[in-house]
């Protein structure tokens, strides 16, 4: 087993990015259940994110979603974050919520719609300049519902054209993260349905274009850790949108549905030297029925637990068993790490950082939940069931 001190040291290098929309009200297409005390502004979302960071110590970055987090002065918003020990992370573009986007955005057959969508993406890069954000996250709802509705290849050409324009606009230290999703809202074709399509576009664009793996965006049974291993090997894994799913894009708390899968993913991250700042560990979740801040704290802890277990894998023993063609021995090395209770180790890590060993209990004791219920009336909706 890897020495606990080395595991603890590696754990301190990971930072987890929480999404602004997870702090707001969300729901399904059937109902948004409003909760008391949810943020009424991007600033209040940052106030809540600061609580998550305060109790976990590893969530100093917050992703924004434009236009859901539209403000007049983005540099001032970045200052607001900084004053709370945070920084602004990925800017998530939104080319799916306007009526104009019924037949797609950058892939639409209508050139005026394509121009509008590209204008929004370029505006997001302007916002990155103001906030100091490194990453532009691109998720396209584009696709078709019926065979013959539009030309699959022409849509790829339009996509490539828009991505190229955005790529050329990126600054020296900025990146674009292209996210794929196999279906929904389109049900016949999706223009960026899988890692292969995202990878092909990113490869042509250049090193500043990277693939983002949303763990809820695959067909059931897909081996996500294989995709992670491959993208890391090719230097093309820009980050994760973590969440968990039982059926489709459920956006439940990461690690809730399948902690073993999360461990397997994190093992490939560790194996591929991906615990660096080059890989963004973002959450993309919605908390429709559970209180939001403790749910986000729980999610951060779940990522940490999977990471700790992945770090505990005895890589020398694993390599030896693999080289000896010892199938069961190799599997046992991995399972030993997965079956280790890492909660005491993580409690130590927190205490050594001056934090409460139990972040959820510390949050409940802090009084923040009652304070926001008292102070905030009429909280914001996250947009839609992102
Ligand atoms: C839609 O599926 C989605 O959940 C994507 O995963 C994006 O990352 C997110 O919305 C925010 O736009
Ligand atoms: Mn996502
Ligand atoms: Mn999604």
Automatic annotation (TrEMBL):
Cross-referenced InterPro entries: L-rhamnose_isomerase, Rhamnose_iso-rel, Xyl_isomerase-like_sf
Keyword field: Isomerase, Manganese, Metal-binding
Presence of the UniProt keyword Isomerase in the record: yes
GO molecular function: L-rhamnose isomerase activity
UniProt entry tagged with the keyword Transmembrane helix: no
PANTHER family for the chain: L-RHAMNOSE ISOMERASE
Name under which the protein is recorded: L-rhamnose isomerase
Naturally occurring in which organism (per UniProt): Streptomyces litchfieldiae
Higher taxonomy: Bacteria, Bacillati, Actinomycetota, Actinomycetes, Kitasatosporales
């Amino acid at each position: 087993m890897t020495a606990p001190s080395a595991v603890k040291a590696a754990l301190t290098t990971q930072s987890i990015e929480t999404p602004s929309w997870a702090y707001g009200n969300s729901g399904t297409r059937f109902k948004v259940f409003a909760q008391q005390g949810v943020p009424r502004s991007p600033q209040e979302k940052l106030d809540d994110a600061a609580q998550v960071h305060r109790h976990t110590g590893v969530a100093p970055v917050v992703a924004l979603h434009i236009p859901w987090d539209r403000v007049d002065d983005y540099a001032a918003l970045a200052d607001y974050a900084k004053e709370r020990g945070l920084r602004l992370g990925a800017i998530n573009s939104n080319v799916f919520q306007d009526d104009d986007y019924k037949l797609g955005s950058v892939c639409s057959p209508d050139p005026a719609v394509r121009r509008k969508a590209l204008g929004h993406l370029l505006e997001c890069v302007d916002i990155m300049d103001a906030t100091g954000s490194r990453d532009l996250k691109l998720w396209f709802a584009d696709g078709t519902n019926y065979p013959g509705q539009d030309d699959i290849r022409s849509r790829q050409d339009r996509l490539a054209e828009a991505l190229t324009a955005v790529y050329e606009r990126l600054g020296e230290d900025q990146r674009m993260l292209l996210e794929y999703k196999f279906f929904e809202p389109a049900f016949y074709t999706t223009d960026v349905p899988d890692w292969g399509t995202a990878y092909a576009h990113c490869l042509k664009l250049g090193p500043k274009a990277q693939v983002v793996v949303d763990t809820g965006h695959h067909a059931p049974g897909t081996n996500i850790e294989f995709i992670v291993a491959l993208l890391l090997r090719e230097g093309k894994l820009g980050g994760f949108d973590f969440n968990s799913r039982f059926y489709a894009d459920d956006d439940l708390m990461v690690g809730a549905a399948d902690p073993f899968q999360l461990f397997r993913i994190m093992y490939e991250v560790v194996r591929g030297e991906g615990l660096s700042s080059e890989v963004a560990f973002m959450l993309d979740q919605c908390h429709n029925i559970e209180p939001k801040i403790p749910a986000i704290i729980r999610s951060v802890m779940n990522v940490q637990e999977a990471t700790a277990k992945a770090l505990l894998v005895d890589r020398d023993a694993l390599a030896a068993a693999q080289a000896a063609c010892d199938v069961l021995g190799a599997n046992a090395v991995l399972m030993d790490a997965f079956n280790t209770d890492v909660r005491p180790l993580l409690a130590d890590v927190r205490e050594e950082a001056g934090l409460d060993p139990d972040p959820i209990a510390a949050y409940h004791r802090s009084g923040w939940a009652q304070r926001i219920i008292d102070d905030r009336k009429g909280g914001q909706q996250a947009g839609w069931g992102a």
